[in-house]
Amino acid sequence: MTPERRTTPSREIAPGSEPASERELTAEEIATAVAEYAADRKALEIVQLDLRELIGYTDYFVLCTGRTDRQAKAIHDAIHLGMKAKHGLLPRRVEGLSEGRWILMDYLDVIVHVFIPETREYYRLEQLWGEAPSRAVGVGAA
């Protein structure tokens, strides 16, 4: 069974910004764009988990790591600003930004997790969602 491509009509569009194209991005395109913005800020271990066949509340997780809480916040900022400026998208919700150990950005079809190394190792989301197809992105990706 091939997962159908869908977009979420309830995505929040940033006031005063216009998407780069007339059509809405697919979840896969959002996940790819997010990973590219994270890579631009030197995020480590960028991984996309395809959850379309496993759960109903999102299509992808994008996981990445910053060396420090300061870098994790910079990764968040790059993703937030890039998605707003280039695609007119704002996350529905952001959590953990003040601490910077685990920043969660909810784009509905795509949920972004920006960790520091200790937090990523502790929660091990790749193992928790081990049955999900995954794709490494960025430097050292296979």
Question: What is this entry, summarized?
Answer:
The protein is α+β, with helices and mostly antiparallel strands.
Q: Per CATH, which architecture?
A: 2-Layer Sandwich
Terminal-residue CA separation: 26 Å
Low-confidence stretches: 1-10
Total beta strands:
8
Strand order of the largest sheet: 5-6-7-3-2-8
Q: What oligomeric state best describes the polypeptide chains here?
A: single chain
Q: Whole-number radius of gyration?
A: 14 Å
Structural class: alpha+beta
Q: What is the tally of helical segments?
A: 4
- Can you give the helix content as a percent range? 25-40%
Mean pLDDT: 88
Describe the global form.
globular
Overall structural domain count: 1
The biggest beta sheet is recorded as: 6 strands, mixed
Beta-strand residue fraction: 15-25%
Fourth CATH level, the homologous superfamily: Beta Polymerase, domain 2
Which CATH C-level class is it?
Answer: Alpha Beta
SSE ordering: EHEEHEEEEHHE
Q: What is the name of the CATH topology?
A: Beta Polymerase, domain 2
SSE topology:
Layout: E1 12-13, H1 27-40, E2 44-50, E3 60-65, H2 69-87, E4 89-90, E5 93-95, E6 102-106, E7 110-115, H3 117-123, H4 125-128, E8 134-137
Parallel strand pairs: 3-7
Antiparallel strand pairs: 1-4, 2-3, 2-8, 5-6, 6-7
Helix pairs in contact: 1-2
Overview features:
about 140 residues; alpha+beta; about 25% strand; six-stranded mixed sheet; Beta Polymerase, domain 2
Description:
There is one protein chain. The chain is α+β, with helices and mostly antiparallel strands and 142 residues long. It has a single domain, classed as Beta Polymerase, domain 2 (2-Layer Sandwich). Helices cover 31% and strands 25% of the residues. It has four helices and eight strands. The strands form two sheets. The protein has a six-stranded mixed sheet with strand order 5-6-7-3-2-8. It has a two-stranded antiparallel sheet with strand order 1-4. β5 and β6 form a beta hairpin. α1 crosses α2. It is globular and about 35 Å long. 35% of the residues are buried.
